[in-house]
Amino acid sequence: MMGIGFPELMIILIIIMIIFGAGKLPEIGSAFGRSIKNFKSSMKEAQEQDENDQLEEGQQASIEEGKDAAEEGLTDEEKEALARKKAQEEGDAKDQAMKEAADSFTASLPRKGSYDFSKDQEKT
Q1: Helix (H, G, I), strand (E, B), or coil: what is residue 4?
Q2: What is the spatial distance between Cα 17 and Cα 23, in angstroms, rounded to a whole number?
Q3: Do the beta carbons of residue 23 and residue 123 sit within 8 Å?
Q4: Residues 64-120: pLDDT tens digits?
Q5: Average pLDDT score over the chain
Q6: DSSP alpha helix (H) spans, the chain
Q7: Could you tell me the residue ranges of all domains in the chain?
Q8: Radius of gyration (C-alpha) of the chain in whole angstroms
């Protein structure tokens, strides 16, 4: 079987050091760690959203069955008002989801002042 052992990892590390230089390795490692963390969190969010969507579909199906029976006695204006209310609720839910996604992305960015370009210039 093929596996990556210690000698292979050392060769890969040496090649990376030659390509990027020893000064860039910490930056590359931290960027790689952040990417893995963001990937894991996005996968977790996607699974939770899928579960929520499945639950909502089941609930909406049962609610719509009840609404169809209840809507038969409503006027056209009342039906339009219900449709507008439903569209507003769906829009608010999408807005909230987008806001949460934007907040999580913003939280993953480096903090202001955490990088000083002049310090890198002094080292080289």
Answers
A1: coil
A2: 9
A3: yes
A4: 655 555 556 678 888 888 888 999 999 899 999 999 988 888 877 766 666 666 766
A5: 79
A6: 6-20, 25-71, 76-108, 117-123
A7: 26-96
A8: 26
